[in-house]
Amino acid sequence: MGSMICMNELCRATTSVEWKKGWGFKSGGFAKLCYNCGSAFENLVFCETFHPDESGWRECRTCRKPIHCGCIASKYLYEYLDYGGVTCIKCARHLDGHSIRPIQIPGDDFPNGTLGSKSAQPLGIENKIDENDFERRKLMQTNEPGQLFQTQRNDKKQDTMLPIGNVGTCFSNLNQQNIGASLFGKPDNEGPSQGVKDMYESINQPSLNFCLSTPIGTSSSGQPFLGGDVEGREQSKTSPFQQGQRARHILPKPPKPSPTSGSESVKGMASQARIARPPAEGRGGRSQLLPRYWPRITDQELEKLAGDLKSTIVPLFEKVLSASDAGRIGRLVLPKACAEAYFPPINQSEGLPIRIQDIKGKEWTFQFRFWPNNNSRMYVLEGVTPCIQNMQLQAGDTVIFSRIDPGGKLVMGFRKATNNVDMQDPQTPNLPSGNGSGETSFSGMADNFPNGGRTSDDTVNRQVPMSEKKKARNIGSKNKRLLMHADDAMELRITWEEIQELLRPSPTAKPNIVVVEDCEFEEYEEAPVFGKRTIFTARSSGDQEQWAQCDCCAKWRRLPFHVLLPAKWTCSDNIWDSRRCSCAIPDEISPRELEALFRVGKDPKRRKLVDNNEDLESSGLDALATVAASDMGDSIGDMGEPSVGATTKHPRHRPGCSCIVCIQPPSGKGKHHPTCKCNVCLTVKRRFKTLMLRKKKKQSEREAELAQAKDQVPPKDEPEIDGMTSGIELLQMNHSENEHMNHSDNERNSNGDQVEEFGPGKGQLDLNCHPNRDDDMLAEATAGMSMTSLVNATNLPLEYLTQNRLESLGNSLLSQAASESEGHHPDNGFVKTADVEPGGKGAEA
DNA sequence: GGGCTGCATGATAAC
DNA sequence: TTATCATGCAGCCCT
């Protein structure tokens, strides 16, 4: 410890009779302070002593005690007040009494409390908790820019709070000082000495406070891992502008409300899984983590974790362990963006040791380092084998990195992939699988979707094979990325649509009207709030109306169609119908009529969802596969699981796919020799040759045009068709194509000449077609074309299709599309045809 | 000879 | 086309 230096920058003493611990780092460590500075810190007079002239001093609204907001040394000694300003922690504690604590924002990014004024409730004003209070708070919380979620540990209304945003992680919701003493079972960092420690603990006692997303403006979450130094990074600020963005980072699965069962739906929601976009923080703006790294969180986890203590958990990212991650090498590859955002910066390849606790409280030290890689870096955690083994993890399992605030200690949790059961919560069924493939199953979701959501059985049935599939497919492949089950996509779509329906402008918000391209937009500075769910119906006359259920008497009231209701609404709020503005007034129509009415009202919705689903599935290239596959007799169920049997090369291709990508041998094995004469190589060569010819033609044509332009007025712009295809030829081509598409099946079946029509033999089509033509053709294909039309659309010889039992048609279409998406020139879609050799055979690849 | 380290390569997704 | 990342592998070190 010879190199000890006091971390009070005004002191910087290198010697001290005794070294004391100061404020906590996000890494879990503590600032080293000399005796004097440490004593000042312990006595809570650090800022008074060393920062009296610095900016950031404010007064406690209650006791007028000066508080140095924005200083790390005081960051836990005050709280933001909902109505602005700050209060010292003592007063906050005193005021806390029976009220719901404001969400703790131990940050210093917003020292003036602007966030607190928006987000929390006035302390000491609302001490009585009643239902209305809760509802209103829910609304307020929803409205909170940072989308903080809060639970009240000992409150009977906890369930009521959950839907709004309780979260759970694989980590204990313990703050740094309490980790060791409770869940983790052993003392960790001793923390600052008693005075401060007591203060910290006092923060924690009254309630459980859980924060999923980064509280906007929290110092800890507003910046990356501190890594054992302060380096001034504590000063990094988050732009307030990001608040709104961050509010969207949480993707809670909203309920599919039931008009009759508010409480039930609330209960159901308690089991929702959440996908939390990690804090948009980090150095150099490299915080745009890919969704596959967003931590998935379930409410069950929170419930399990609802201990006596409070802390703010900031899930950072998660990663599905690859084979090499879980292998004996003991190197866990970290996603670059995550490593740079949440881990300490390292300049040397050898990196630095980093301490991470697992969920049992055991602390592990890994070497966080990087390798140079393609002008970039590849970050790894070395020495993870013991930890991996300790947690009995294997490839396919998910490790989740999170941070406990205050303190910023890194913790590492995990999810087992085999049965989707979290280690901490063996009863928790079907936790998100954790991979980014979209195979994540949201257990309990069906319960939340009584009217059209997936059923529980649905979930269960699908889940088992999903896990197996994931196991088989994820490991060692990037196919895990963002493959989303069609149902999941559908569900998300529904969810967002429903969210849109429920969003209301903040009651206090007044919009600015901005005009963009002659369209007026209302721009709100405050985040929207969730309103009350209503049912829309239509009379026989065609008039539309909506129905809302009173939150007090549960009676249904008819409302004008255009009305937007707040989250809490009662009969007394029914200003549109004075005859039914009281709970004492009976229902307008009988329950049976209501039921019938709502059934009618819901059916269109369901139909809409189905339509959406169809749209979803029939959009784009997948639609082609759908059309083709259904023509081929594939079951819908198969189509519902596009990932089934996807080849390792092409996620969207199936076994048997003969596209040029799928038939290639695995990486590193059986590479084709330069003299290889296989179909693949021949095709590639032909394509290359054709492309080169085309390129040359293009170039010479440009040169000719340039020379021509010098002499005379430039010719009229031609369509974007290069090479030999003139505009007239294009017309001919399109005409030919139309005819082609209108041919009867017999005609089409009878010849491969049509293929030749598009081939180079006619000198019209081949590589020089308009790229959009491809799309047109695809569009036609989606417009209910027949199987044979599809055949023609792809210009594949029927013989080829026959040989491949028609099965690969859809795949060919897909592969063609995939080739484009993989960066091939769009024209290449017809290279296949162009390369067709006389006789209709040719580039079967 | 086995294990470890560091880099290279190739597949894939993202841009 | 580029960036990222999973993994292969050569070379070195240790036993």
UniProtKB/TrEMBL annotation:
Please indicate if the UniProt record lists Transmembrane helix as a keyword.
no
Q: Name a single GO biological process.
A: regulation of DNA-templated transcription
Q: Could you state a single Gene Ontology molecular function term?
A: DNA binding
* A GO cellular component annotation in the UniProt record: nucleus
* Presence of keyword RNA-binding: no
UniProt-annotated location(s): Nucleus
Designated name of the protein = B3 domain-containing transcription repressor VAL1
UniProt lists compositionally biased (Polar residues) regions at 214-223, 420-443
Where in the numbering of this chain does the TF-B3 domain appear?
Answer: 317-418
Q: Which UniProt keywords apply?
A: DNA-binding, Metal-binding, Nucleus, Transcription, Transcription regulation, Zinc, Zinc-finger
Q: Where is the CW-type domain?
A: 541-591
Organism's domain of life? Eukaryota
Which intervals of the chain are annotated as region Disordered?
214-287, 420-474, 694-723, 739-768, 816-845
Organism, as annotated: Solanum bulbocastanum
